[in-house]
């Protein structure tokens, strides 16, 4: 049994869905297909929920846009009203929800609205597969993927989910399930989401709990490359990677795989394949339990929109554990991700994701105890398997704020 995951880009148009369908058809295995919301629908739904929560007047307009986009696709696929009964029900449910007054909890409302992206995309794709004669069963994953109540960043309840998922995805009546990435639900049946771009993680959870033989993520790239082609010319595809390498890359900011995806697969030694949806006969990249030394080229990963904050105690004292824990809980409270730390006797530098709302309020708080300097608009470059040439290439004409090197990895904060 295999898990295939199709992200937003691979189901963003009539053509893309036809292509995904032909890929599904190409493999005779039993499969679970995990699908994201189509194209940029999640962004649109984020706008919609903001408008709903603030009772803004453009709500109808956004909803109409989302409807029209999906209608364009279903028309292109030749689906009739009879094929789309479930899709209509989902849009009606969404509309009904939006006609009720929102609670005071934004994150909760977010999950109740944004989940429709995945519910609708899977309903359309399942209908299309059936129409093409590929008998598929649509599954509402919320009935079996159980989480806690941390809305927008829910934590998976592995015990419950294991039992429920194995009950639901039992392959008794079908060889092909179609289900949603990114969403789950609490024990009291409130919808939750796993964090943006969380569909890869869903595929990995299902792979782990159902003991799949492999998980394949179909993407618009040839595989895992040694750099993002948007930022670098002459990128090369990596044939294989160890789980360890993959987790380092994902954590450093390589966008091709969601960082949470690797662990569930590593723990059961299930291979993760990243393959190009435009060339389904190409092998892509295999992430697996590598038993030989990999000879890898330098791999470049850039994290943009970084800020470097340097703090030192105002009274010239050393930075101790107590102060460190105070600083880190402040970042945690504000959900700010710290990507790199450097400490000296009296100062501490932190490279962080620049918050959308800016750094001012954070700095005000820090200045109660520390002298604070900061720079924004930086990039954090990570180079795995760096060599001199790679460092020169990366530093090229950029201002260097901080450099950290271990045996295999160099990290540079640059402008
Ligand atoms: N649709 C969700 C998002 O765009 C989940 C995903 O695509 O993985 O964040
Ligand atoms: Mg997406």
Q: Please, could you describe this protein's structure?
A:
This protein has helices at 14-26, 41-53, 59-76, 85-99, 106-114, 116-131, 158-168, 199-209, 243-252, 262-266, 321-333, 360-366, 388-395, and strands at residues 2-6, 31-35, 137-139, 176-180, 183-185, 191-193, 214-219, 240-242, 272-276, 285-288, 299-313, 338-343, 348-353, 370-384, 400-405, 409-414. With 415 residues, it is of the alpha/beta class. The protein folds into 2 domains: 2-219, Carbamate kinase; 299-414, VC0802-like, CATH 3.30.2130.10. The strands form 3 sheets. It has an 8-stranded mixed sheet with strand order 3-4-2-1-7-9-10-8, sandwiched between helices. Helix 2 (41-53) runs antiparallel to helix 3 (59-76) and helix 2 packs across helix 5 (106-114). The longest helix is centred in the first third of the chain and has 18 residues, at 59-76. The N and C termini lie far apart (47 Å). The relative contact order is 0.10. The site of aspartic acid has 12 residues, from loops.
Compact overview of the structure:
The protein is α/β, with parallel strands linked by helices and 415 residues long.
Overall residue-averaged pLDDT value: 95
Tell me, what is the CATH class of the largest domain?
Answer: Alpha Beta
**Distance between the ends:** 47 Å
User: What is the domain total for the residues?
Assistant: 2
Spatial strand arrangement across the major sheet:
3-4-2-1-7-9-10-8
Class inferred from helices and paired strands:
alpha/beta
The number of helical segments is 13
Q: What general outline do the C-alpha atoms trace?
A: globular
Number of strands: 16
Biggest sheet character: 8 strands, mixed
| CATH level-4 homologous superfamily of the largest domain | Acetylglutamate kinase-like
CATH architecture of the largest domain: 3-Layer(aba) Sandwich
Residues in β-strands, percent:
15-25%
- The percent of residues in helical segments reads 25-40%
Bound molecules: aspartic acid, magnesium ion
Look up the CATH topology of the largest domain: Carbamate kinase
What's the alpha carbon Rg, rounded to whole Å? 23 Å
Elements, N to C (H/E): EHEHHHHHEHEEEHEEHHEEEHEEHEHEE
Spans with pLDDT under 50 lasting ≥5 residues?
A: none
């Amino acid at each position: 049994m295999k898990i295939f995951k199709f992200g937003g880009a691979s189901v963003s148009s009539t053509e893309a869905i036809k292509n995904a369908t032909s890929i599904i058809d190409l493999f005779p295995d039993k499969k679970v297909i995990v699908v994201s919301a189509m194209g940029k629908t999640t962004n649109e739904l984020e706008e919609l929920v903001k408008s709903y929560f603030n009772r803004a007047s453009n709500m109808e307009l956004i909803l109409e846009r989302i409807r029209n986009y999906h209608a364009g696709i279903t028309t292109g696929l030749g689906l009739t009203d009879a094929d789309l009964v479930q899709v209509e029900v989902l849009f009606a449910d969404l509309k009904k929800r939006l006609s009720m007054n929102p609670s005071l909890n934004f994150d909760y409302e977010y999950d109740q609205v944004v989940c429709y992206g995945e519910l609708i995309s899977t309903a359309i794709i399942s209908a299309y597969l059936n129409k093409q004669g590929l008998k598929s069963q649509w599954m509402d994953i919320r009935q079996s993927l159980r989480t806690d109540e941390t809305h927008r960043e829910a934590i998976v309840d592995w015990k419950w989910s294991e039992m429920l998922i194995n009950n639901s995805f039992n392959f008794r009546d079908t060889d092909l399930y179609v289900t949603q990435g990114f969403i789950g639900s609490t024990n009291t049946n409130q919808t939750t989401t796993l964090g943006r771009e969380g569909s890869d993680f869903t595929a990995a959870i299902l792979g782990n709990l159902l003991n799949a033989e492999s998980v394949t993520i179909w993407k618009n790239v040839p595989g895992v490359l040694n750099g993002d082609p948007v930022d670098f010319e002459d990128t090369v595809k990596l044939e294989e990677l160890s789980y360890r390498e993959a987790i380092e890359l994902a954590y450093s900011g390589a966008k091709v795989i969601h960082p949470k995806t690797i662990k569930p697969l590593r723990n059961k030694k299930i291979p993760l394949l990243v393959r190009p949806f435009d060339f389904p006969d190409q092998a892509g990249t295999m992430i697996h339990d590598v038993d030989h030394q990999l000879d890898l080229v330098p791999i470049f990963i850039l994290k943009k929109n970084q800020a470097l904050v340097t703090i030192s105690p105002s009274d010239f004292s050393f930075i101790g554990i107590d102060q460190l824990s105070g600083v880190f809980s402040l970042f945690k409270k504000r959900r700010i991700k710290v990507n790199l730390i450097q400490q000296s006797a009296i100062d501490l530098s932190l490279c962080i994701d620049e918050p959308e709302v800016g750094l001012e309020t954070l700095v005000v708080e820090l200045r109660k105890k520390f002298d604070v300097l900061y720079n924004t608009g930086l990039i954090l470059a990570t180079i795995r398997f760096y060599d001199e040439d790679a460092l020169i290439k990366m530093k090229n004409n950029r201002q260097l704020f901080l450099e950290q090197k271990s045996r295999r990895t160099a990290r540079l904060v640059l402008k």
